[in-house]
Every structure is written in structure tokens, then in C-alpha cells.
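pasting for ref
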Amino acid sequence: MTEPTQEQLESSDKVVKRTVGGEIRYYLKDIKAHWPAVVEQHPDAAGHEAWWTADGRFHATHAQLRRDAMIGGIV
């Protein structure tokens, strides 16, 4: 899986840009829509956050979302 560029993140309608502690982050707007299978198996995942930093690195507060991202589960 290739990491998204900052230009791709800026132009995406699936993320919202926020600055946290001086760091630019691109938060997924709707985890349930993006990962329906994960939310179906782990309903609490919908209440978590997932984001990319400007360098394209992915972060998530739910373990299954992080695992899916590592194997290319992000579409």
C-alpha cells in the first residue's frame, strides 16, 4: 500500500483537516462508511478516530483499524 500524498489528502472529500498540537492531521469523516466490515465485527470501532499525518502515515485509536491499514485494508 502506498501512502497518500499531502495533495491527495487535501483534495479528498473523505477527510477533514485539523491541526492538533501543531501537527496537521486528516481525520476520516465516517469510519463506519469506510470500514463497514470492521464496524460490523467490532461495533465500538465506529466511535474511534482514524487519521493521516501530512507525511501520509496512518494512525487510528482502534487496534483493528490499524491492523487493516497495515495489510492494505484502506480503500
